[in-house]
Structure formats: structure tokens, C-alpha cells
Amino acid sequence: MLKTSGLFVLTAIAEIVGCFLPYLWLRKEGPVWLLFPAIISLALFVWLLTLHPAASGRVYAAYGGVYVATALVWLRIVDGIKLSTTDWLGAGVALLGMAIIVFGWNQHG
Questions:
Q1: How many angstroms separate the CA atoms of 38 and 72, rounded?
Q2: Per-residue pLDDT for the chain (109 aa), expressed as one digit of tens each?
Q3: Please, are residues 62 and 98 in contact by the beta-carbon 8 Å criterion?
Q4: How many Cα atoms occupy the beta-carbon half-sphere of 89 within 13 Å?
Q5: Whole-structure pTM value
């Protein structure tokens, strides 16, 4: 479970970076070269998704929970926005959903 969660976090960071850099370019007037590491990050994101040991639909569903929590941590650390109690509660619910799906991987073909 720890290995899977760590892989999900790396996958989420790759996706967030791949989307954040074009955002900086488009909305914050960042330099166009930001698109190059964004492309690499999104390619890494796709490759990381292939490393998960379950059917793609289950991986995407479970990954969504980790993505929610990782995006909120990004919001706090990178954007400097204080998280609310409901942010933390929502992240906890999302991670609980991820855990339920991952624990069920061995029970389904």
C-alpha cells in the first residue's frame, strides 16, 4: 500500500507540474520555455500511470483520491494558501476512497 501510494503521489506531482507550468505561461506571463518541461512532466505522468498493477479504470479512480490530496498540498506549499478544515476533510475522504479501491485490487481480476 505504501509503494502504491508513493507512486500515486509521484504521478500526481508530474501531472500538476505539467499543468502548472503552462498556467504560468498563459496566465502569469511566464516565458514560453516553460512549455518544454511541462511536456516532459506530462509524458512522465502518463508513463507513471502505466506502472500501476491494476486495470486502468481502477488506477484512475484510486489515483483521483491521491490527486485531490496532492493538489491541496500544492495549493498550500506552492501557492501559499492556507487550507480550511473542509479542505483537509475532503482530502481525507478522497484518500479513504483511494484506500478502499486499492485494498480491493487483489479481490478482483
A1: 20
A2: 678 889 999 999 999 999 999 999 999 999 999 999 999 999 999 999 888 877 678 888 888 999 999 999 999 999 999 999 999 999 999 999 988 988 887 676 5
A3: yes
A4: 3
A5: 0.85
Could you give the C-alpha distances from 58 to 55, 73, 84, 89, 103, in angstroms and in order?
6, 23, 29, 23, 11
The residue type of 66 is V
H helices of the chain, where?
Answer: 2-27, 35-49, 56-77, 85-103
CA atoms within 13 A on the CB side of 34: 16
Q: For residue 90, which amino acid is it? A: G
Return d(Cα 12, Cα 30) in angstroms, integer.
Answer: 22
Q: Is the dihedral of CA 92, 98, 102, 107 positive or negative?
A: positive
